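Reminder to self: tokens first, then the designed residues, so the page reads top to bottom the way the pipeline ran.
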């Protein structure tokens, strides 16, 4: 595989998997809605893939060491691989109940990060367990952080919603009491 395509593949794989899993876990833990998770995956697969492809394009151009052809190969491959490695997580969401789909998606993502890290480490003659450990540690960090952010968002907005309802109720009661007193 050409280096420009390999860059797009590795970036698309890692970013597509980690971003999508992070989003899925955050949306699941804050909404528990299959429709919201599907919408999030579709958004990530398209918008984030385009954004990352543009970022790779601009970063490659700024280095002044790649040909225009190599820059465009990296751009296209980043978009394609980011899109594919993001959109693949819709399959479990469509086929399974949400909690199982999220768990299966996390397992698929961890396996793909593990396999890619193993291949990369062997090709570069690096210590495989170190490369794999770092990549999996970062992946688990994203999973844990996004879960708790999702739970925190859910708690915050639940509290905020209850507070708004309480204020409306208090206003209504005051208005009602004022109308009774006037009558």
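Designed residues (183 positions):
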């Amino acid at each position: 595989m050409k280096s420009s395509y390999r860059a797009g593949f590795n970036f698309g794989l890692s970013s597509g998997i980690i971003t999508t899993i992070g989003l899925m876990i955050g949306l699941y833990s804050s909404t528990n809605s299959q429709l919201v998770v599907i919408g999030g995956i579709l958004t990530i697969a398209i918008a984030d893939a385009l954004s990352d492809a543009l970022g790779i394009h601009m970063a490659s151009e700024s280095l002044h060491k790649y040909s225009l052809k190599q820059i465009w190969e990296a751009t296209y491959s980043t978009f394609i691989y980011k899109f594919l490695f993001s959109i693949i997580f819709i399959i479990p969401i469509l086929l399974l109940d949400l909690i199982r789909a999220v768990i299966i998606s996390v397992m698929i993502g961890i396996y793909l990060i593990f396999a890619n890290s193993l291949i990369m480490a062997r090709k570069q003659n690096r210590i495989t367990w170190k490369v794999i450990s770092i990549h999996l540690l970062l992946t688990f960090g994203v999973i844990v952080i996004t879960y708790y952010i999702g739970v925190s968002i859910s708690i915050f907005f639940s509290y905020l919603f209850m507070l708004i309802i309480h204020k409306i109720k208090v206003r209504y009661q005051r208005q009602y009491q004022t109308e009774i007193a006037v009558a």
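The chain has a mean pLDDT of 89.
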